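Technical annex, item 7. During the second reporting period the consortium partners agreed on a shared format for inverse folding records so that results from different sites could be compared directly. Each record opens with the tokenized structure and is followed by the designed sequence. A conforming record, contributed by the partner at site C, is shown below for reference.
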């Protein structure tokens, strides 16, 4: 399986995922529209919707736009994981979130998420670091502006800058595919310590193989390109 083949399968996988999330989310909303499960499904649906948008921006001219949208996805995905914790603290936070007031209830608890992943044997998740890096490129910092300039000169400079488009886009595509794979785990796997969302894997026949292919092919490419071109002082590690 090549990364191009995995990328070609991504829209179908997102379609399967979204349909199951909508089905289960509707069930939970009918029971209690402000339950813990309802909050989780709302965030899972938002995360999937944002990934559908990112997939349309995987071109050299739209790389910086994709990064801005990626920040919104990361915030939604990480908050989903925070809300899935089978703890009263998570349920209290969800209550504040449903109230919709101007507070920090939308911010994920990155340290807790990282500790949970460590316990599962997946160390180095770096949720906080990833969020901080994407924040730097989403706000109008000098680094975000530099990134936009670098994206624009690839297609608008005179004479055009000659680059290996495949090499330029490979880390972006790997990041996108990895984002889908991590959402599949966080939204559909019933792991001890998280509330069950009871998604039906039989209704998503291609999702689990997609996740396995991404971790085998795309994650090593993404790790090879970490930590990226942002200087350490530009984000919180």
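Designed sequence (site C submission):
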């Amino acid at each position: 399986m090549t990364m191009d083949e995995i990328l070609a399968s991504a829209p179908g996988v997102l379609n399967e995922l979204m349909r199951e999330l909508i089905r289960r989310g509707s069930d939970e909303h009918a029971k209690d529209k402000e339950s813990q499960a309802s909050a989780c499904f709302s965030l899972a649906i938002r995360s999937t919707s944002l990934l559908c948008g990112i997939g349309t921006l995987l071109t050299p001219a739209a790389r910086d736009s994709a990064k801005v949208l990626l920040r919104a996805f990361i915030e939604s995905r990480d908050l989903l994981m925070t809300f899935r914790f089978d703890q009263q603290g998570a349920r209290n936070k969800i209550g504040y979130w449903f109230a919709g007031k101007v507070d920090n209830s939308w911010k994920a608890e990155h340290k807790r998420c990282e500790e949970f992943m460590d316990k599962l044997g997946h160390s180095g998740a770096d949720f906080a670091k990833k969020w901080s890096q994407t924040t730097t490129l989403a706000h109008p910092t000098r680094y975000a502006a530099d990134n936009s300039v670098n994206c624009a000169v690839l297609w608008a400079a005179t004479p055009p800058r000659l680059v290996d488009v495949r090499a330029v886009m490979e880390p972006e595509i790997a990041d996108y595919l990895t984002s889908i794979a991590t959402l599949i785990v966080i939204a559909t796997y019933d792991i001890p310590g998280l509330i069950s969302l009871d998604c039906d894997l039989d209704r998503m026949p291609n999702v689990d193989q997609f996740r396995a292919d991404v971790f085998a092919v795309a994650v090593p490419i993404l790790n090879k390109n970490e930590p990226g071109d942002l200087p350490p002082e530009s984000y919180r590690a």
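Residues 3-31 form the longest helix (29 residues). The mean pLDDT is 90. All partners now use this format for quarterly exchanges.
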